[in-house]
Write a structure and sequence with these properties.
Low-confidence stretches of chain A: none
CATH superfamily of the largest domain in chain A: Thiamin diphosphate (ThDP)-binding fold, Pyr/PP domains
Oligomer: heterodimer
Number of helices of chain A: 13
Mean pLDDT of chain B: 89
Distance between the termini of chain B: 33 Å
CATH topology of the largest domain in chain A: Rossmann fold
CATH superfamily of the largest domain in chain B: NAD(P)-binding Rossmann-like Domain
CATH class of the largest domain in chain A: Alpha Beta
Strand content of chain B: 5-15%
Number of domains of chain B: 3
Structural class of chain A: alpha/beta
CATH topology of the largest domain in chain B: Rossmann fold
Helix content of chain A: 40-55%
Mean pLDDT of chain A: 96
């Protein structure tokens, strides 16, 4: 059914369609719409679920872990500072192998306080072991959450679905809402394989000596790496049900491109428009949206830029003392793969600065010619900086 | 099964880091340097009771719905509950911890309720011994003494020269104790302990073949005989509270000054004196070489700071059920009142400790009405002692 929805409403709708059984969350701008409307839906009895109005994000994630271990399909949502407050429990949920699905609304980390779009919050949680997916639009939000449950429950790993603050959380877009019956076919109820059972008591999150520790982590690393392919397989299955494909990497006009612009989140759409404009000028440009950052979709990336000579990465985030985090990831993925490849990283569009076609084109020109307004800081070039 | 499962390959590793099989092989008990000691302690009410009645225990039995069991527990320490329930100055109630929350438990009323019950109870008795004891006088001291000697298996006869059993109690005005209640109490005591009671008896110490001369011990009960009763020559004067040993012959019981002459509100003290005398007389009659039976260890007093009154909710308004007589209660009242007891120092299997133990190392004891610590695994964290709201569990240094 066609509807007009904001990204947050699409997330709520997806949680409802997934028939989540436990929602435990603490409100934070710009995520609040999601948890408020889920509380309403559960309160009205439209979704048979337990809503836990907890006192903090740390508890939200702890209770999600408990609920998931008890066999419930579990959902939560947060943003920025709230995500940071969950940090410890992010390690726990991934380590305990519980398939929690969480929406994170990408918002800048304070100080200074800023409610707008920035990817540093989730990218600084890269190493917790969560699967990370970055949405392009409201339809992607709805579909990716449903795919995320299927992937999470198969891989027994938690999935974080990321939405750009305001560009996606609070922008209304037309989208297609799938039928509940079709969703139920795609996503059967969760059957927890190592569920808490009073008749078979176990200790969870056990103490483990050096004898087994590395083996447990090695096994998890293998299972996490396998998610890159698993996601694409589940996405194909989703496509067969709903005729929409949401893969880990989305390439645009890269077949014959010399230059490829890489980004994550909503900026990818704007980047495609810039690609079209630059193509009109005769430049052989393409673009790549990395929908998945963890596990890093290495094979898909290497395939997509097989013929490209110059990669430009636009980061809405930074790892202080290094460079943009996506640029770092791309470089690490391509090192030893293509020796002749040039990578230019920009830090742009953080804290609510719009990334428009008119901001992208000068950055591309600067990457090619070396001349432009973006200023150098370490290995990256920063746009929108005071003179 | 306490075998440790050895994981030898990646395939055997569980996906989630959980235990597989049992962890019982991991005996963490040697981490412990303080040990939870589960031991019932004497409640403040019991400490102040002249008879040391374990009040929380019999109230606990009632709280489990076992009213007869409650009466049996009470009678093991007090064979005349209907009398103490009417006459005693109830020092137990002044120490009741519950008064800090709302109001004291009506212990005296409870004793009266239990005492007046028509139900019969079973009392623990030893095997019959071929020794005879005669108690002369059937006042509270004599009856109590006769009861405990009867329970120990002696052949006990109570002789009362007056026409009615009860001694000094007979002279009390009927509003203090009605004759019916008195005879109910005495009848039950006599029946339970297999005592022969003879009223209107002619006491002649010199006539051979008569009872006093045939008995191994003759006890003269000061609460059961007229003040001018003359002890025969050769009688040994004995204060049951102070004198260590009681030997055979005729024992003329002499009470301390505060208990003579008979004072009805002090009835528990006379019953206590009778009980004490029974124990000492029995010790004196034991054949040489026979080991003394293991006495119950005296309970340690509960530490009042360990009663966590803030964890107990105040009970609702007093429910007064209609009673025929002032100061009596019915079954509904009694069960409600028993449920209010905090059970100070006395495990009532609330299982708070069991719920909170992070290592499942404290569990209900299968055989006793208490909990037991699994010392192979208990790490001595002390959470059980902290959570016990009634001071039963204490952390002790067992290394000394």
């Amino acid at each position: 059914m066609k509807k007009v929805m904001m990204g947050t409403e699409a997330a709520t709708m997806a949680a409802k369609l997934a028939r989540v059984q436990v929602v435990s969350a603490y409100p934070i701008t710009p995520q609040t719409v999601i948890v408020e409307s889920l509380a309403d839906i559960i309160g009205r009895g439209e979704l048979k679920a337990k809503y836990l109005p907890v006192e903090s994000e740390h508890t939200a994630m702890s209770s999600c872990m408990g609920a998931s271990l008890a066999g419930a399909r579990t959902f939560t949502a947060t943003s920025s500072q709230g995500l940071a407050y969950m940090h410890e429990m992010l390690h726990f949920t991934a380590g305990e192998r519980v398939p929690v699905v969480m929406v994170n609304c990408n918002r800048a980390m304070a100080p200074p306080w800023n409610l707008y779009c920035d990817h540093t919050d989730s990218l600084s949680q890269r190493d917790t072991g969560w699967i990370q997916y970055y949405c392009a639009d409201a339809q992607d939000v709805l579909d990716a959450i449903l795919i995320a449950y299927a992937v999470a429950e198969q891989a027994l790993l938690p999935v974080m679905i990321n939405l750009d603050a305001f560009y996606l959380t609070h922008t209304s877009e037309p989208l297609d809402v799938p039928d509940q019956a079709e969703v139920d076919l795609f996503l059967p109820p969760y059957r927890a394989p190592h569920k808490i059972d009073v008749d078979d008591p176990k200790t969870y999150s056990i103490v483990c000596g050096a004898d087994l520790f590395n083996s447990i982590k090695y096994k998890r690393q293998g299972d996490t790496l396998a998610v890159a392919r698993l996601w694409d397989q589940v996405a194909e299955k989703y496509n067969s049900h709903f005729n929409r494909l949401h893969k880990t990497v989305e390439a645009y006009r890269t077949e014959d491109a010399d230059l490829c612009i890489v980004g994550i989140g909503t900026a990818a759409g704007t980047i495609r428009l810039a690609v079209d404009r630059l193509r009109e000028e005769g430049l052989k440009v393409g673009s790549l949206r990395l929908a998945m950052i963890r596990p890093f979709p290495l094979e898909a990336l290497q395939r997509a830029i097989a013929k490209v000579k110059h990669v430009i990465v636009i980061d809405r985030d930074v790892s202080f003392g290094a460079e943009g985090i996506v640029a770092q990831e791309v470089k690490a993925g391509l090192f030893d793969h293509r020796g002749d490849l040039k990578v230019t990283g920009f830090v742009a569009g953080v804290g609510g600065n719009d990334v428009t076609v008119d901001t992208i084109i000068p950055l591309v020109r600067q990457a090619i010619s070396g001349d432009g307004n973006a200023v150098e800081a370490g290995m990256s070039l920063w746009a929108e900086v005071l003179p | 099964m306490q075998t440790k499962i050895i994981i030898k390959s990646l395939a055997e590793l569980p996906t989630a880091p959980t235990t597989i099989g049992t962890m019982a092989w991991n005996q963490t008990g040697d981490w412990r340097y303080v040990t939870p000691l589960v031991a019932d302690k004497l409640a403040p009410c019991s400490q102040n009771c002249p008879l040391g009645i374990p009040i929380p225990r019999y109230l606990g039995a009632m709280n489990r719905g076992d009213v007869g069991g409650g009466l049996a527990l009470l009678m093991a320490h007090n064979p005349l509950p209907g009398l103490t329930g009417r006459l005693c100055y109830h020092p137990c109630q002044t120490k009741c911890v519950r008064r800090k929350i709302d109001r004291t438990i009506s212990i005296q009323k409870m004793e009266r309720y239990l005492g007046d019950l028509a139900t019969d109870v079973t009392i623990e008795k030893s095997a019959i011994k071929d020794r005879r004891i005669t108690v002369i006088g059937s006042g509270p001291l004599g009856l109590s003494c006769a009861f405990y000697l009867g329970c120990r298996g002696y052949r006990v006869t109570v002789l009362d020269p007056s026409g009615q059993a009860g001694g000094a109690l007979v002279d009390l005005p009927p509003e203090k104790i009605d004759p019916q209640a008195l005879s109910h109490e005495i009848d039950r005591l006599v029946r339970l302990a297999d005592i022969r009671l003879e009223t209107g008896a002619i006491i002649d110490f010199d006539k051979p073949g008569e009872l006093p001369a045939k008995a191994d011990i003759v006890i003269l009960d000061p609460t059961g005989l007229p003040e001018d009763f003359c002890a025969p020559a050769g009688a040994v004067v004995c204060n049951p509270f102070d004198d260590e040993a009681v030997t055979g012959g005729i024992i003329s019981v002499q009470l301390p000054q505060n208990l003579a002459p008979f004072k009805a509100p002090m009835i528990a003290h006379y019953i206590a004196a009778g009980r004490l005398l029974a124990r000492k007389a029995s010790d004196g009659l034991r054949p040489a070489g026979l080991a003394q039976p293991a006495a119950d260890l005296p309970l340690q007093a509960v530490n009042i700071d360990n009663i966590k009154i803030e964890r107990f909710p105040a009970s609702g308004p007093l429910v007064e059920t209609e009673s025929k007589q002032e100061g009596t209660g019915d079954r509904e009242w009694a069960l409600q009142e028993a449920a209010r007891c905090l059970s100070c120092g006395t495990c009532n299997l609330c299982l708070q400790c069991v719920s909170y133990c992070p290592d499942s190392s404290i569990r209900p004891d299968g055989e006793k009405d208490t909990v037991a610590v699994d010392l192979d695994h208990c790490k001595g964290c002390g959470i059980c002692a902290y959570e016990c709201p009634r001071g039963v569990i204490t952390m002790e240094d067992m290394s000394v």
